[in-house]
Amino acid sequence: MHNLLSTGDLEFESRHIWHPYNSTNSKVPVFPVTAANGVKLTLNDGREIIDGMSSWWCMAHGYNHPQMNQAMKAQIDTFSHVMFGGLTHKPAIDLARKLVEMTPEPIQTVFFADSGSVAVEVAIKMAMQYWVVQGNTRKTKMLTFRGGYYGDTTGAMSVCDPVGGMHSMFTGLLPEHHFVPRPACKFDEPFDESHISEFKNALESMHENVAAVIIEPVVQGAGGMYFYSPDFLKRVRELCDEYNVLLIHDEIATGFGRTGKLFACEHANTVPDIMTVGKALTGGYMTLAATLCTEKVSGTISENGAIMHGPTFMANPLACAAACASLDIFATGEWKAQVANIEQKLRDGLMPCAGFDTVAEVRILGAIGVIEMKEPVVMEEIQPMFVDEGIWVRPFGKLVYIMPPYIISDDDLAFLCQQLCKVISRI
Ligand SMILES: *Cc1c(COP(=O)(O)O)cnc(C)c1O
């Protein structure tokens, strides 16, 4: 079924609807989508383009997946929503069971949130409550790394990169936390202790006021598309233990296979105390995220209090049913070969760009390909160029990157890379 838009629709849209990080009189066009199947989006004018973004990391299984659709239809005919305060249901229990099973061992408890940003808010509150219920009211700060991205609500924003997250625009609104430079050791580089010295010094001097360290494991996503050494992450875990500080991993972008491991922390064989997941959790079919924690965290809070969060749409049954279906697809393990294949094909397909004068670096990890330009791209120019070449790519600043759905065929992936390089060669 197609949902064609009229000229009137498009005029209304441009005057009355906000888009992400955009003004209502932006010169960057928006493209109307009328259908989506597999890895392809159909536009209003009938053109089909290949989605290189998985709609911002989440559509791992592709659009209109029969198993996903079927699971959601079945839940709609049962019931779509019921409050979670005082009530429970099978989709939530099934999903929690799957999550506890999939995540590394001491992770045992699940809090369902309605978006990634909210999951991060809950993670931060959880970390603070952990200390407060033990009578420690001094541990109220987060310690984190520059170049991070954790979402757009104020608590989450307050730990995002201070420059990229435009903290100066929101002085007075955002709580102030501690920052150290981004992990200095790149993914393939040999780690040595000097790489972590600033973090270690910060912990040493501030740990009495730090509730938790929050970090995106191995891949900093929307804050810079930067891959760092798993050995660095391993040391972060050790130092958090040494200084009695909790460790939060935000796996919202990296989770569910995107980096080549089911969760990115598995590159380092570390386990956080608190972990957030979202995005591909539902395969992109519904908005849902979760904050998971160890029994140490949930038990400590529960002994002396309660978690102080409870959204209206907590554990929405339809979203939980979508997530159950999505996790069943991940559980087949097919993603492993798909992601490994995508990684190989991205290396072949994007490395030619590394030779262009305009390109600073090309880097690839799992099903993520990044072309870092020397100068920021001009969105209103480059966005229509991608669409004209039959692909959907949404750069920001100097970063042109793709993370296609895992189900992409070799031909479509080769086309995506080839057209991407073609556009890059022309700017
Ligand atoms: C996208 C993202 C978030 C925020 O998730 P939303 O669902 O957009 O609120 C948080 N952390 C990371 C690492 C993300 O990539």
UniProtKB/TrEMBL annotation:
GO BP term (any one): biotin biosynthetic process
Catalytic activity from the UniProt record: (8S)-8-amino-7-oxononanoate + S-adenosyl-L-methionine = S-adenosyl-4-methylsulfanyl-2-oxobutanoate + (7R,8S)-7,8-diammoniononanoate
Enzyme class: transferase
Cofactor: pyridoxal 5'-phosphate
Gene3D superfamilies reported in the protein's UniProt record: Aspartate Aminotransferase, domain 1, Type I PLP-dependent aspartate aminotransferase-like (Major domain)
Principal location: cytoplasm
EC numbers on record: 2.6.1.62
Pathway noted in the entry: Cofactor biosynthesis; biotin biosynthesis; 7,8-diaminononanoate from 8-amino-7-oxononanoate (SAM route): step 1/1
Record's keyword terms, sorted: Aminotransferase, Biotin biosynthesis, Cytoplasm, Pyridoxal phosphate, S-adenosyl-L-methionine, Transferase
InterPro entries cross-referenced by the UniProt entry: Aminotrans_3, Aminotrans_3_PPA_site, BioA, PyrdxlP-dep_Trfase, PyrdxlP-dep_Trfase_major, PyrdxlP-dep_Trfase_small
GO molecular function, one term: pyridoxal phosphate binding
Function: Catalyzes the transfer of the alpha-amino group from S-adenosyl-L-methionine (SAM) to 7-keto-8-aminopelargonic acid (KAPA) to form 7,8-diaminopelargonic acid (DAPA). It is the only aminotransferase known to utilize SAM as an amino donor.
Quaternary structure (record): Homodimer.
NCBIfam families per UniProt: bioA, PRK05964.1, PRK07986.1
Protein name, as recorded: Adenosylmethionine-8-amino-7-oxononanoate aminotransferase
Organism: Endozoicomonas montiporae
